[in-house]
């Protein structure tokens, strides 16, 4: 690599994969990667085995817990949209990445009809993600709620997503750490919590530790937030029993 960096920081699966393809020698530290094993970044979480390690908010139960919470808040819903991204690596022959498949399985397990909507991320000829088309597709399939996946494009444009959902009067379920988006519900682990660990991992590497020997770290703290203002704006109510379980009610 021309710049000869000591360490590369990769935010998100696409960035981390691009870095890993570019070099097998320069240490790479990732964040905002939901499943680094499924994406081929590391051999295992305990023993990464190559020049890549990092920290993840991977929660194997998050898809299930989010869907269960969504149906507890809105027991009448039957159709749910899952907002994903076309650039997420690890897609199967149907175009579904590991995080897409996990959320589809969670929705189907509860008897919901799930629709994965892939937003087209920014590109030179298209500087802004096409959220308008994404929500039009949801409305065409009569989606009654949308689960926003923990992906870089969603994090970067979380407020715009909440605005689009509000305009279409669709309740939102955001992942943890996106409470400032303005969605109705936020639940789960937070990628923001992973960033606090990055300096310590980089410090280990700069002091001589091989990234292949640095286990991938986990963030496990979950947060439940209800936004009553957002709920009121689209004409929905949150049961009092669930409000009592929240860490934050706004």
In short:
This protein is α/β, with parallel strands linked by helices and 250 residues long. The chain has two domains: 8-58 and 190-218, 3-Layer(aba) Sandwich (Rossmann fold), CATH 3.40.50; 62-188 and 222-249, Response regulator (Rossmann fold), CATH 3.40.50. 33% of the residues lie in helices and 18% in strands.
Description:
With 250 residues, the protein is an alpha/beta fold. The protein folds into 2 domains: 8-58 and 190-218, Response regulator (Rossmann fold, 3-Layer(aba) Sandwich); 62-188 and 222-249, Response regulator (Rossmann fold), CATH 3.40.50. Helix content is 33%, strand content 18%. It has helices at residues 13-22, 62-73, 98-109, 131-140, 152-156, 158-167, 191-195, 198-206, 228-233, 240-243, and strands at residues 8-11, 28-31, 52-56, 79-85, 113-119, 146-148, 172-175, 185-188, 217-218, 223-226, 248-249. A 7-stranded mixed beta sheet has the order 5-4-6-7-8-10-11, sandwiched between helices. The protein has a 4-stranded parallel beta sheet with strand order 1-2-3-9, with helices on both faces. The N and C termini lie far apart (47 Å). The mean pLDDT is 90.
Secondary-structure topology with pairs:
Layout: E1 8-11, H1 13-22, E2 28-31, E3 52-56, H2 62-73, E4 79-85, H3 98-109, E5 113-119, H4 131-140, E6 146-148, H5 152-156, H6 158-167, E7 172-175, E8 185-188, H7 191-195, H8 198-206, E9 217-218, E10 223-226, H9 228-233, H10 240-243, E11 248-249
Parallel strand pairs: 1-2, 2-3, 3-9, 4-5, 4-6, 6-7, 7-8, 10-11
Antiparallel strand pairs: 8-10
Helix pairs in contact: 2-3
């Amino acid at each position: 690599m021309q710049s000869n960096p000591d360490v590369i920081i990769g935010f998100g699966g696409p960035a981390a994969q691009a870095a890993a393809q570019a070099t097998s020698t320069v240490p790479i530290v990732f964040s905002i990667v939901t499943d680094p094993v499924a994406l081929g970044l590391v051999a295992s979480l305990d023993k990464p085995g190559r020049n890549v390690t990092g920290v993840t908010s991977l929660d194997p139960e998050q898809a299930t817990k989010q869907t269960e919470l969504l149906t507890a808040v809105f027991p009448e819903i039957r159709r749910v949209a899952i907002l994903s991204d076309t650039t997420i690596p690890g897609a199967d022959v149907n175009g579904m990445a590991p995080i897409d498949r996990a959320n589809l399985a969670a929705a189907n397990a509860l008897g919901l009809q799930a629709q994965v909507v892939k937003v087209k991320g920014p590109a030179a000829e298209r500087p802004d993600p096409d959220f308008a088309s994404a929500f039009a597709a949801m409305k065409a399939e009569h989606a009654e709620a949308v689960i926003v996946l923990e992906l870089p494009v969603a994090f970067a444009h979380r407020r715009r997503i909440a605005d689009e959902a509000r305009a279409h009067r669709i309740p939102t379920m955001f992942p943890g750490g996106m409470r400032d988006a303005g969605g109705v519900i936020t639940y789960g682990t937070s990628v923001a919590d992973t960033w606090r660990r990055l300096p310590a991992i980089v410090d280990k590497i700069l002091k001589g530790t091989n990234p292949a020997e640095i286990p991938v770290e986990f963030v496990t703290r979950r947060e439940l937030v209800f936004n009553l203002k957002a709920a009121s704006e689209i004409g929905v109510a949150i049961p009092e029993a669930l409000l009592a379980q929240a860490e934050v009610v706004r």
